[in-house]
Sequence to fold (1877 residues):
Amino acid sequence: MPVYFLEIIVVALGLVMLMVDAFVKLEDKRSIAWIGMLGLSVVFLLLFQVKGPENTDAAFWQFYSANDTTALFFKGIAVLTTLIVLVMAVDYSPVVVDQTAKPEKGAHPQSGLGEFFALPMFACAGLMWMASANNLVSIFVSLEAVTITFYILVTYLRRNVGSLEAGVKYLILGALSTGFLVYGFAWLFGITGSMDLAEITTALAKPDINTTAALFAFALILMASAFKVGAAPFHLWIPDVYQGAPTPITAFLSVGSKAAGFIVFLRLATPFLASEPIVGKVTMVLTVVAALTLLFGNFSAIPQKNFKRLLAYSSIAHAGFLMMALASAPDKLVEGSKLTPVTVIAFYLGAYLLMTLLAFLVMSTMRKVQVSEEIDSYRGLAKRSPFLAFALLIAMASLAGIPLTAGFWGKVNVFLLAIQQKEWLLVIVGLIGAGAGFYYYLKIAASMYLSPTEKNDDTSAIAISPLSRVTMIALIVAIIAAGFAPGLIFGLMG
Amino acid sequence: MDVNTLAWAVLLLPLLVAASILLGLKRWSGLSSLVSTGSALFTLVMCIMLASGDDGTAMPFHWIQLDDGNFTVDIGLTLNKLSKGMMLIVTLIGFLVHLFSLAYMKDDKGKARYFAGLSLFMFSMTGIVLANNFVMMFIFWELVGVSSYILIGHWFHKESAADAAKKAFLTNRIGDFGFMIGILLVWVLTGSIYFEEIKEAVGGVKNLTLLNIAMICVFCGAIGKSAQLPLHVWLPDAMEGPTPVSALIHAATMVAAGVFMLARVSFIVDITELAATVISTIGALTALVAALMALQQNDIKRILAYSTLSQLGYMVMAQGIGHGGSEAGMFHLYTHAFFKALLFLGSGAVIYACHHRQDIWDMGGLRKKMPITFWTFAIGTAALIAVPFTSGFWSKEVILETALHEGKMLPYVCGMIVAFLTPFYMTRLVIVAFTGKSRTGDADHAKEVGPIMWIPLAILAFMAIFSAYSFISGPFQANGHADIGHLFSHIGLTAILSLVGLIVGVGAAVFLYKGKDEDPISIPLFRDKFYIDEIYNGIVRVFQDAVAAFLDIADRFIIDPVVARAPAVGAMMAGSFLRVFQVGNVQAYAFMFGAAVVALIFFLIL
Amino acid sequence: MELTLNHFLFVSGILFAIGLSGVLLRRNLIVIFMCLELMLAAANLTLVAFSRFNLQDGQPDYDGHVLLFFIITVAAAEVAVGLAIIVALFRNRETTDVTKINSMKF
Amino acid sequence: MTFLFYIFAAFALIGGIGVVVYRNPVSSAFSMILSFLGLAALFIQLNAYLVGVLQILVYAGAIMVLFLFIIMLINVEDEEKRRFPFFSFLGAGGIAVAFIALLAVVLKRFAPGEATIPKLTALEGPGTSDTHQVGELLFSTYWFPIQIVAILLLVATVGVVVLSKKELK
Amino acid sequence: MSILEIIVFLPLLAALVIGLGAPARATALGVSIAVLFASLVTAICFAPSVEGTMQMLSSRALLDLPGFPKLSLAFGLDGISLVLLLLSAIVMVAAVWIAPQESAIKKGSAKLYYASLLLIGGGAIGAFCSTDLFFLYAFHELALIPTFLMIGIFGHGENRVKTAWTITIFLGVGSLILLVGLIAAVVALGGSTFAVADLIALAKNPETGIAVDSQKWIFPLLLVGFGVLVSLFPFHSWAAPAYSEAPTPVAMLHAGVLKKFGLYGLIRIAMPLVPAGAEMYLNVILVLLLGNIIYLGLVTVAQKSLDRMLGYSSVMHMGYIFLGVAAGNALGLSGAVLLMFAHGISIALLFALAGWMRDRFGTLRFDELGGVAKSLPKLGLMFGFAAFASAGLPGFANFAAEVAVFFGAFQGEGETIGWLRWATIIALWGVVISAVYMLRAYRHLFMGPKPAKLETGADITWAVRIPVLLLVITLLLVGFIPETLNQFIRPAVEGILLIKAG
Fold:
């Protein structure tokens, strides 16, 4: 089966869900999510079955890279993320119903829920396209498809001030970054005369390339890419938007969008990094951005009291580590080595997916019993639900990079690469950042396990839906298994 | 039993006894004490058998092998003239002390523990005596410290006893600090820790300065154990232990260990002049200072303790005066062991009879009530103050003769002065404690002690008189200079001076103290031991406790804050600072984006 | 003075900068959004200019035009969604003043 | 030619400045239309007739109408009675000026930018119009992005519907 | 499954099983005894060979991609790790056994308590048995979060949460520095493998070994990293509060076992991989270890309560082990390894007894206690053993080790006194210091009159005596016959020195 069938299936699933929502009378619209979940599970399995086309002459392949295992891996990340986001969304649906418009008389009480499940499917398709996009045009359209879907999803809770505010912030700043992206694309197109990344690479590598213009274009594109992945100083939107968005969407943003952003970033940066005349400055800028991101993400998280915001900063911090890998200039790479920014980033994102989604899963389960997302409200969780506490503990351990978790390997690979490339500044900053990380991740653990509960605290047990429980267990097992044997994740990269 | 087994049995039997008491025998305290005493007797018998056997080294036990076998520490037992003789002294005195203790400690609750301690003490001392290498000696050296800690602190619930035990151990540790450095240096210089090998190699050492330093360091160990200046302070305090323990410590074990050790390494002392001078000077000074301190003490045991110090000063001094001095010192150690054990056990009997009163001014008139004790005590005193023809006379004479002969004037003069002082304070003791009227009810009701106590006294009294004569000293193999005939033919300046000292000292004491109920003279400097304890306390307080407290504060308020808290606070502050960027206003964000892009472009294209 | 590529690029850039300054300056969300559209339009000018100056077989490089087409389409969709969001916000908060939307910070 | 360029460029820029400085959103919207018209003219000057027309139809027509519609719908008042805060003005202006200055440097160093408008050599015959060319490209080579855009538009539609559903008071 | 895999994974699995609902205490105790038994069997099967190579090897490849260091789950033992394995197993049994004596155990879930203990112990075992650099590091880190939770939940005193934070962040950051150092070493050696043996082989080869220029800065990273874990001066300030406030079994395991990891790493990893770096920084190490011995020794003297004193004393004694390591010869290294074992057992013993006392008396302040030995003679005896062992008295394992360390530090050619010898001489004064504080403590706690307020209750029961005796007997056995362990250590040390010699 050709690769591009996957997106088609996902889009079709999304359409089916919309149709079912519109035309089938359902008692409980949550069953729509099941269509998506089942479908995505199938798609995930199909990922292992697809193969590239025999004939790559068609115009289509200008826009869609074939035979690209990295793209396949990122598609997997997108599918898995969406799948788990749907799991969360099911748990979260009462909040959605509550916070969206009250339906008119006679309308379904869960009106508006169906779209909440269907839209992620389209976002997923967009993310998958992004993974394969190898042309400025396809990058642009798929990126925008995803971004616009996210504008909607972030703002979805119309009765919730936070959600609206987050939506507006995301909209304005997202559009701003789109402006820069387009302007940068225009320049890139102008100086290379092409939209195809391969051709752009060739053009930029020419020694007579106008370096000033190329760097100008790079600056513009860097801004937009950094915005998407949340690299400093273009990360400022992240905490606000993450905090306001519905929890499953925050998870989606922080994993799916970031992952796709990174592969686009990688693809867009590669031509510049491959260009002899400018690579020095490009690397230097990437280094500075990486260092700033590490510092901003890790230090800002330290005084944080809101869990969701903390995870937002954590996502910035992780973007810092990923940038660190990216900035470890690939021109010095050892021949034949698989230790490249691409594999390292892919691995890191794979691990990041597991641990971040686990944290968000716990969070969306908690949202059912308490509105507050303050860290303090996780007080006594170890007693209320040892399982949830343990799951969150594992997630935090992995995020902090404690050995024998997937997150640790992510960091090890980054450091391996950075040290191999002698990026000492980044190593030092990364070290400081990871050290700070211990503190703020363990703060959650401290809240759950060490803080005494107070009088007014709810200490009743927490019900966990079987679906969430199974997902959490699967994620925990995956985190630990990958912590022991990182080959499991590398294996998925082919 | 062959020699090999015998030697090992001598060493291990006391340990076995101590361990078995500890492991369960202690439930039957009477049995424990009997087993312990029995084992002491048995050891004595075995030592006598050993003494008649051949010299040599019992098959060693490889305690630890390092460096692929190049460095091996053995537990090897040396049997030679020195060690066999010393073993006899140790076991004989030890047995007698055990015997005496049976009665003395009859009603003590911790009797089992006490006897376990005694056995352990015997084990440790045996180890020192038989050691064939420095490390093994050091091991048992330390064990002696532990045993003394246990025994001195036997009545640990008394503040003074607890403190004394601690003090004894720590003071010894300080000496051991030097000892260990000395051992290491000797090892570095000669390449071996075994006495035999060192003896062969020591002649080839080029860096004599370092060898001198090494020897002085080794001597530090002796300073600690044998309570020489300036580490003598533990010994008087050690009187807090039960009196038989004092007898054991002061007569044949522990304090003797230092002297013994010096004799063991006399081959090094022989070629290190500086170290020898240091040794003899310190010994001489100790003899003098301790005698001065003894003048004004009132506690019967403390007087004896200072006399011990003083006598140890003689012995150590002898080790440093060279050419035969070592044998002379050992000879004095040998004679001293008997009369000092006698004196201590005698005082034990007195104390026992007086219901644990120890101040001589609380006694008086005991001569009539405790005749056996008195007479044995008097014999002991006679030997100590070197009344001619007693054992003490001969051995002291030898030391002073040798010093004079070798031209070591400082030791000689000091020794001579002590010869004047010793008769004085000992006579004072006897007169005050035994003559006149009973000054307290306890003394009044004192009765003669039972045979278990006085039999050891009697034996020791016999030894105190005759041990210097070759028919006894022969088997003890401590006959180096005990050629009485030779001494007779040699009566010269020394002997005359000694006699004068004896007469003057005794006379003065009789004159001053006869019939007195309180001390007619008062010399605070002597009574307060030259304030050395106070000075030490001050030093400990300033240089240890104050510095420690200061460092503790530094640790809490400098190191911890700098190493740990500062980065943490820095991170917190950085976090708080970076939050400033998160103002929540979209336009502010956009502004920062714009500024960042401009900066980026600026940086990239310029 | 003959028209050169730089003329177009410069005008485009100035317009982009004007749009940017509007985004930073204006309080009204709708106007801010307009300024964002202005930036996109400015970028389009660059694109077209480059297309015109990079001839392909004697014709302008129409790939640039196609990209522009996509940009306009996407911009339209973005405007639709964006305005819907602004309306939703207005319904809830009764304001379109961007400085008042700062409940979440730090 | 040059003269026209300056005229239309001035249109575009003045319109742009108008968007920024008019306090009334409606005025902003109208000056934006002016700006877009100027831009469209510049497009046409660059032989991009289709794009120019699209600019007018889609931007100046549809999108700006939408803007005006919303402005009317939510009836925003002249909320910016005050002048712009000094620091905002300084910041925004500063960044714009800095950006333009840097752009000037870039352009100064951008040698290809000195080129004059090249002659179009293959503009004869059927199928050479830009409309034809772009259309052909769009629906042959670029069919795949078109599909994605279609999905995008679908999503936007759904989103707008969801977001602006009528509220039951 | 090889026997080592069983030994390593049994505690970890047991922790999981406890989490799933198995009876906590019984499982934990059973498993730790099983591990001890298996370790003893391993020791018996272990052939002390002259080459000192690894034995009982097992390996499962986990990652083999070009460019990435080859990773495998590999276990193996040489004499040094065997000794440390035994140490871990013994202390773990004692710690689990004595755990119910803690009344603090009631503060939280017993499951969490025992599972954490098993994770800490199992992690240590895993670290000592691993022959793969990654797992060596990772297993050690396994203790980080359990320690955090244990101190934070079950710890003593008001400051326990703060203390939990301090130790966790300190150790976390320390191990991060270590991680960077290790990765740097691996990369400098070509970045092809994590297998310790292969890395050493590479380091030995002058062509692939690390350039001196690189060693110059890799070694400090390793030193600081391992140093923090060992509480090397001045990175020690986490240790004393942590140990004094941790639950007793955690203090036992941490001070007794886990702390040794840093030293193990220095001997096993740092010295063979960057020998030139180690040489270069010898004098720095000497200064720091004197900081441990003298500075912290005096700080120990100043402590006013037993738990803190023990905490500092444990830090102080690390200095001697460092001295042995710094000596860098067979004597010193053997001494260091033996001292690691001896110190581990003795400090665990001390903490066990101190914890018991704190629980009974409610305080460990010297000025509030006294005369305990009279009413609780057995406790007094056991503590006496522990105190004397810790002060380095002959008859206990510590003495043999310290002697070896001192001789090692003095060994060498020449009849002069160089830096190392001066350092040794100064360090020897530490022996006096440790006697001072140990005897002071004993004097204050057990001797003298008993304060009227103090209720002592009954003497230690068999539930306490068994674990305590286990430790005491181990100390005595090794003290009397050091060869029981030394026979394993000697060839292993020779092996390491052979590597060093190149």
In short: The mean pLDDT of chain C is 89. The CA atoms of residues 51 and 63 of chain C lie 8 Å apart. The first helix of chain C runs from residue 5 to 25.
